[in-house]
C-alpha cells in the first residue's frame, strides 16, 4: 500500500506542478488586466508582508514529518500523540504572536506607506492585512495536520486536495473579477480556501488516520532537540523569504503600488524559472545524493559536481537565452504594456540567479555530508547585505535599484560565498567548474546576438507568432548545442533519461 501511495503521490505531484504552472500562465494575465496594476501591487505588497510572518514556523514543519515517521517506525504511539499536543500548543502560541505582530503592522500602515500610497490605497491595505492576520492565526495551529498526513504517507489524498484547490481557486476568482471585485476579494477567497483545506486535513487525521492528541505532556528536552534540527531549515526559510518578499515591501514604502506590481511579476517569473531547475533536480539529484554520501575522493565529488552542473547549464541556459530574446514580447502579450519594465527587472535578477541554480548540486553534496550549515551562514550574511542595499537603491533608483540590490546579494552569497564553501568544505574543484561554464558560454552568447539581430525584422504581435518563433529558436538551439557543446557522457545521460520517460 505504501509503495502504491508513493508512486501515485509522485504521479499526482507532477500533475500538481504542471497544473500550477499552466493555471498560472493562463490565469495571471487575465487577473492582471481585471485587477489593474495598482490593485495587483496592493495585493502583492500585503502578501509579501504577511509572508515574512510565516517564518515564525521556525522550521518545525519538517521536524513534525521526520519525528512522526520515526515514532511510527519504532511503534511509539504515545510519543507521537504527546508530540502532536506539544506542537498544537506551540503553534497556537505562535499563531497568537503572529496575529498581534500583524495587528502591529495594521495599526502602522499609514506610517509605513503614507509617502507612496493614497488614502484609498492605505484603506485597502489595512482591510487585506486584517484578513490575512486572521488567516495566519488559523493557519499556524492547523498546519500540523498536513505534516502528519505527509508523515503517514497518505500522499494521494494530500495531492488530490491540492489539485482541487489549484483548479477551483482561480475559477472562483474569475467569477468574482467578472463581477467587479478586486484585490480584497482575492484575499477573502484565498482565506476561505485555506481554512477549508486545513479543516479537511484535520478531519482526515482524526477520522481516517485516527490519530490522537495528548495535551498533558510538554517535553522541553524534546523541544530543544527538535529546535536544533530545525534551526538551519529556519535560517534557509528567512533567506528564501528575503529574495521573494523584501523587494515588494521596500518598493511599497518608497515607490507605490505600481512599482510593487512590476517587481512582483518579475519574482513570479523567477519562481517559474526556478521550477525548471527543481524539476531537473528531482530526476538527477537522488542518484547524486547516494554517490555523494559514499566515501569517495575529492576528485570523484568534483567530477560529479561538474558533470551535473553542466547538465543544469544546458537546460537553464536554454530557458534564459529564450527569455532574453523573446521575454519582452512575451511579457507585453501576457501581462500588458504596463509591465514592460518587468522584462528588464527579471533580467537583472535571473542572470546572476542562474549561476546559483546550475551549481545547486553542491548543496546536495553538502547535505549528504551533513555540512549544510556552512552554506547557510554566508546566505544569511548575503541577505543582510542585500537588505542594507535595498533601501538606498530603491529610494534613489526605484524598481531597477531594488532589483540590482537583490542581484548583488545573490552574487555575493549564492555564487561567490557558496563557491568558496564548496571548495573549502566539500573539496570541490570550483576552478574546473568555472572553466567548464566559460567554455560552454560561447554558444548561448552567439545565439543571443544572432537572434536579437534577426528578431528586429520579425513581427511579433500575437501569442501564435511568438510561439512559432520560439519553436524555430528551439529547433536551432537544442540540436546545435548538443552537437557542439555536449560530451559523450552527457549525450548518454540525456538518452537514458528519455528512455525512462518513454517507459513510464
From TrEMBL:
Keywords: Cell membrane, Membrane, Transmembrane, Transmembrane helix. InterPro entries: Poly_Biosynth_Transport, Polysacc_synth. The keyword Transport does not apply. It comes from the Bacteria. GO terms for cellular component: plasma membrane. It is a multi-pass membrane protein. The chain crosses the membrane at residues 12-30, 42-65, 86-107, 127-148, 160-177, 183-206, 249-267, 313-336, 342-365, 377-397, 403-425, 437-454, 460-484. It is found in: Cell membrane. Its main location: membrane. This is Oligosaccharide flippase family protein.
Amino acid at each position: 500500500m505504501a509503495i502504491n501511495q508513493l508512486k501515485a503521490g509522485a504521479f499526482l505531484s507532477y500533475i500538481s506542478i504542471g497544473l500550477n504552472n499552466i493555471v498560472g500562465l493562463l490565469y495571471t494575465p487575465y487577473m492582471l488586466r481585471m485587477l489593474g496594476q495598482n490593485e495587483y501591487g496592493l495585493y502583492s505588497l500585503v502578501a509579501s508582508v504577511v509572508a515574512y510572518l510565516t517564518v515564525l514556523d521556525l522550521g518545525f514543519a519538517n521536524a513534525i514529518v521526520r519525528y512522526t515517521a520515526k515514532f511510527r517506525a519504532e511503534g511509539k504511539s504515545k510519543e507521537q500523540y504527546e508530540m502532536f499536543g506539544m506542537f498544537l500548543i506551540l503553534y497556537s502560541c505562535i499563531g497568537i504572536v503572529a496575529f498581534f505582530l500583524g495587528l502591529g503592522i495594521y495599526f502602522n500602515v499609514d506610517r509605513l506607506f503614507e509617502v507612496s500610497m493614497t488614502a484609498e490605497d492605505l484603506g485597502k491595505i489595512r482591510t487585506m492585512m486584517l484578513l490575512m492576520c486572521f488567516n495566519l492565526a488559523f493557519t499556524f495551529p492547523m498546519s500540523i495536520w498536513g505534516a502528519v498526513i505527509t508523515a503517514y504517507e497518505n500522499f494521494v489524498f494530500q495531492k488530490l486536495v491540492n489539485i482541487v484547490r489549484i483548479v477551483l481557486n482561480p475559477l472562483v476568482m474569475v467569477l468574482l473579477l467578472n463581477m467587479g471585485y478586486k484585490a480584497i476579494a482575492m484575499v477573502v477567497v484565498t482565506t476561505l480556501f485555506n481554512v477549508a483545506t486545513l479543516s479537511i486535513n484535520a478531519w482526515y487525521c482524526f477520522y481516517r488516520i485516527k490519530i490522537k492528541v495528548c495535551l498533558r505532556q510538554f517535553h522541553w528536552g524534546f523541544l530543544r532537540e527538535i529546535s536544533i534540527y530545525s534551526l538551519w531549515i529556519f535560517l534557509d526559510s528567512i533567506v528564501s523569504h528575503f529574495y521573494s518578499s523584501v523587494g515588494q515591501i521596500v518598493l511599497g514604502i518608497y515607490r507605490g503600488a505600481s512599482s510593487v506590481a512590476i517587481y512582483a511579476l518579475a519574482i513570479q517569473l523567477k519562481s517559474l524559472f526556478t521550477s525548471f531547475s527543481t524539476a531537473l533536480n528531482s530526476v538527477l539529484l537522488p542518484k547524486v545524493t547516494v554517490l555523494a554520501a559514499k566515501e569517495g575522493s575529492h576528485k570523484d565529488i568534483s567530477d560529479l559536481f561538474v558533470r551535473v552542473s553542466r547538465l543544469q547549464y544546458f537546460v537553464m541556459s536554454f530557458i534564459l537565452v529564450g527569455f532574453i530574446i523573446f521575454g519582452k514580447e512575451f511579457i507585453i502579450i501576457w501581462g500588458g504594456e504596463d509591465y514592460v519594465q518587468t522584462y528588464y527587472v527579471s533580467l537583472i535578477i535571473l542572470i546572476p540567479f542562474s549561476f546559483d541554480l546550475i551549481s545547486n548540486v553542491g548543496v546536495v553534496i553538502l547535505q549528504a555530508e551533513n555540512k549544510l550549515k556552512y552554506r547557510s551562514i554566508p546566505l544569511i550574511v548575503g541577505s543582510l547585505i542585500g537588505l542594507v542595499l535595498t533601501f538606498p537603491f530603491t529610494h534613489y533608483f526605484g524598481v531597477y535599484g531594488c532589483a540590482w540590490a537583490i542581484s548583488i546579494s545573490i552574487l555575493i552569497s549564492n555564487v561567490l560565498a557558496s563557491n568558496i564553501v564548496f571548495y573549502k568544505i566539500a573539496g570541490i574543484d570550483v576552478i574546473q567548474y568555472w572553466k567548464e561554464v566559460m567554455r560552454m558560454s560561447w554558444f548561448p552568447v552567439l545565439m543571443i546576438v544572432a537572434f536579437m539581430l534577426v528578431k528586429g525584422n520579425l513581427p511579433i504581435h500575437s501569442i501564435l507568432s511568438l510561439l512559432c518563433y520560439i519553436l524555430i529558436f528551439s529547433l536551432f538551439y537544442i540540436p546545435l548545442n548538443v552537437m557542439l557543446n555536449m560530451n559523450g557522457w552527457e549525450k548518454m545521460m540525456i538518452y537514458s533519461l528519455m528512455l525512462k520517460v518513454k517507459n513510464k
